Structures are given as C-alpha cells and as structure tokens.
Amino acid sequence: MAPRFVQISTGALICSFVLLPLWAVWRQADGPTSLGPADWSALRFTILQAALSALLSTLSAVPLARALARAQFWGRAAVIRLMGAPFILPVIVAILGLIAVFGQNGWLNAGLRSLGFDGFSIYGLQGVLLAHVFFNLPLATRMILLGWATIPQERLRLGQSLDLRGFARFRLIEFPMLMTVLPSAAAVIFVICLSSFTVALALGGGPKSTTLELAIYQAFRFDFDFAKAALLGLVQLGLSASAAVFALGFVWGHQLGIGLDRPIALGRHSTLQKYLDGVVIGVALLFLGLPLLLVLGNGLASVTSLPAAVWMAALRSVLIALGATALCMLLSLSLLNRSGEAIATLGITVSPLVLGTGLFLIARPYVNPFEISLWVTLCVNAVMSLPFAVRILRPEMSQVDANFRWLSASLGLSRLGWLRWVVWPRLRRPLGFAAGLTAALSMGDLGVIALFGDAERATLPLKLYQLMGSYRMEQAAGCASLLLILSFGFFWIFDFLGRRNA
Predict the structure, then answer these.
(1) CA distance 430 to 172
(2) Which of 47, 118, 155, 274 sits a CA distance of 20 to 30 A from 382?
(3) Is 311 domain-assigned?
C-alpha cells in the first residue's frame, strides 16, 4: 500500500475537489430554504429506485458470474469482455437501444401484441429499473468474477477431497467470498442510481418518477434556485455517504487463504448444471447484446461519412480518456484501504450538475471557464471513476497484503521489490479492468463538458448531443456507433493487457 502521507494527501485533495464546488454553489444562494412536498416525493422515489436497482443488479449477477466462472466454452473470454459493454455505453446511446427493444414500437411489444398480450410500457419505475439493471448488471458480474478469481485453487481442491457438495460447498467456500464483494458492489450501484439523470429524464414518465438529480436540474435550469440545488445536493451527499458506510461496515473481514496462484477452476458439474449455466448466459447475452446490436446496425454505415468536426471531437475524447485513466490509476493506488474506499466514493456522491456548476463559479473570477473545459473534464472524469477503480483493486490488494506482507519483510524485500515481484503480478488483472472501465466511462461522459464545452472544444458525446438536437439523425447514428466502438475498444485493450499472461 502507499505510504501514509501519500494516502492522507490524496484523500485531502479529493475531498477538496468534491466539497469546494458544493460550497461555491451554496455561497450563491440568496437565503435559507427547505424541502417542499415535491422534493420529498423525489427523495422517496430516488431511494426506492436506487435500492431496487442495486438489489436486482447484484442478485442477478450472482448466478451469471457463477455460470461464467465454471463454464468452459469457445469464446468465453470474449463473452466476459462483452459483459462490460452496457456499463461503458453513453447513457443516451444505450437508451436508444433499449427503446428499440422494449419501447412502444419495439421488438418485445411487437411480439407480445402478435401473441394477443398487452404491451409493456418502458416508462415509469419499471423502465428506470430496466435501464439501471441493463447498465449495472455487467459491472456487478465482473466484480463478482474478480472475487471468484481470488479463491485459491487449493481451497477448491480441499473441498473436493472432503466431498463438499451443494449448499455445504457454497456456504464454506463461495459464500465468504460473496460477503467481501456483494455489499460494496451493491453500495456502488446504489450510489450510481442515486444520481440518475438521463435515465429518469428519458424513461421516468412524469412527476411521480422524478429523482433528486432531476429536481436539482429543475432548480438550476428553470427556478434559478441555488439554495434549493445546494440543499438537494447535500441530501444526495448524505445518502451516498450512508451507503458507503453501510458497505464498509457490513463487509466481512474473512480471508480466503493463500495459494499458488493457479487459475480458478470450479471443478466438475452435472449435465443439468451445464444446461442451466448455458441458459443463464444466453438470456444475459440476449438482454445485454440486442440493444447494442441495434445501435451498431442503425449507424455503422454512416461512420465513414462523418464530418471532420466529429473526428476532431473524437480525438479530444481519446486524449481526455487517456489522461483521466492515468490520473485515476495514480489516485486509486493511494487509496487501497477502507478509509480510502470511503473517500473515493465521494466521486459519485455529489451531483455532477452541482459539481460542474461549482467548478464554473470557482474558475470564473480567474480564467475563462471555456478555456480550461477539457482539463476540468479530464479531472472530473478521473474522480468520478475512482469508486469503481478502488472497489475493483482493494479486495485483491487486501489479499496480497494479508498473505505476503510478513513473508516479504522476512526476506528483506525493498519497496521496489515488493511492487515488482509481489504486488504487480497479482494486481495486474484488476488494474487492467479498472483502467479499461475508466477510459470507457471517460469516453462516454456528457457531464461537465455540457456546461463548459462549446463548438470549438466539443467532445464526441457533446457532438452527438448537438447532432441529435439539430435532427441530423443519420450523422447522430454514425456518431453513436463511433462512440460505442471507441469506448468498447479502450475497455478491451486495457482489459486484454491486464489479463495477458497474468
């Protein structure tokens, strides 16, 4: 782990970066305010949809991750990498794909009506939950898969020699690992869904489905009520911090033991289990893959005819993604402990709208905010990705520290030797996954750049938004396909480099 003073400095830097913009927004308020009936309704709906989304995503991910962990088939590695595609999709692009499948005129409703059944409405609570599970099921699955990879192969062989089967095998071998992964995975997804904006805006279906993020947007955009926006931002911060404390408090400190770093193999299983695993994987691929295929099919032919401005925007997005990834990895390696994970969660506890507006207010007296828009976007993307990176890296680092710290000290390994021979070989695979996730999320971000960006500094997501706003739908479809290819390409490259010969 990083030296103590590095951890403290990094934590102080992140707290300042997140909390100072909230303070800047609060300073602009004209006076005190309080929550009205509509705000309390938004708060209740936000908690309900976030809790249900986290529960459905994590519970659905357990059988899917288990099936992927024990199934061996051609193309398995590609399927696991494809699992990350929905989470790294730009939200507006993914919603277009979901509407094409589950919308009023989508494939599902067309099939239901042909069979004489009523159609499925994608708008309202059910639509919000559907979209959130679509985005977060792959993230939870990959996090649980990484947890399964930490189970020593020797422990599984011991279970086989003791003839552990069924529930006994699950309780003694797999359940302890799940208790180290599921609470934090659910908390991260809960916090993500607390700040849901685009999903609730597009699929909420009315005032009854308003989230806190939508209420903050209304306070900024229509009411110009900075006090209300800051108060709602504080409420959202409190909810997110409570979720982080819950996750840290309920993670069991169970050590999975030490092994010889052999690849995980869950052993033989029956023919029925193989068929059930195949069904689970097939249904998940259909649910996650069909919207992606429709997005690509609608816009792939238009990619080559995109104007030069779109390609320049793509170059800016690539440079921002690489810079954000490097910065996020440096910060996350300094926060691989329990308090560091709580600090990292601050990155997604504050509303992006509040964060962007606060940064605008802080920068305005000194520089033109538009001139530093790309640098601000890079830093915000790095901080917003920190919770995912730290959550991915910390379980493996905890295992390394518990299993090899005293042995390395007895051998007199220097810090450089500790990093080279002990930490790097075991942290390389989750580090590649975390870097790929960060790069992909940065590629598709449409947050701060929407406030700071202009025509000369537009990123690819902002250019896509502008094309959709001007009803140039053919070019927008091509831009969406290009964004999808670049996002998933970054994710695949970093993940492959991390897994190669690991």
Answers:
(1) 25
(2) 47
(3) yes
Task: Confirm whether 20 is domain-assigned.
Answer: no
In a domain, residue 8? The reply is no
Q: Which two structure tokens, joined as six digits, stand for 455?
A: 């025509």
pTM listed for this prediction: 0.73
Domain holding 157, by residue range, is: 36-499
pLDDT given at position 325 = 93
**Structural domain count of the chain:** 1
CATH number reported for the structural domain that contains residue 381 in this entry: 1.10.3720.10
Q: Which long-range contacts (CB under 8 A, 24 or more apart) does 196-200 make?
A: 196/46, 196/49, 196/50, 196/128, 196/132, 197/352, 197/353, 198/91, 198/92, 198/95, 198/446, 199/91, 199/95, 199/128, 199/131, 199/132, 199/135, 200/49, 200/128
Q: Give the number of C-alpha atoms closer than 13 A to the C-alpha of residue 202, restricted to the C-beta side.
A: 18
Are residues 255 and 151 in contact, defined by beta-carbon separation less than 8 angstroms?
no
If you count them, how many residues does the chain have? 502
Residue 376 lies in a domain: yes
- Most confidently modeled range among 41-50, 172-181, 220-229, 413-422: 41-50
Task: Write the pLDDT tens digit of every residue in 391-414.
Answer: 788 777 777 776 776 676 677 776
Q: What is the mean pLDDT of the chain?
A: 77
Strand, coil or helix: 77: helix
- 51: burial class by Cβ within 10 Å (0-12, 13-18, 19+)? middle
Phi, psi (5° rounding) for residue 333?
Answer: -70, -15
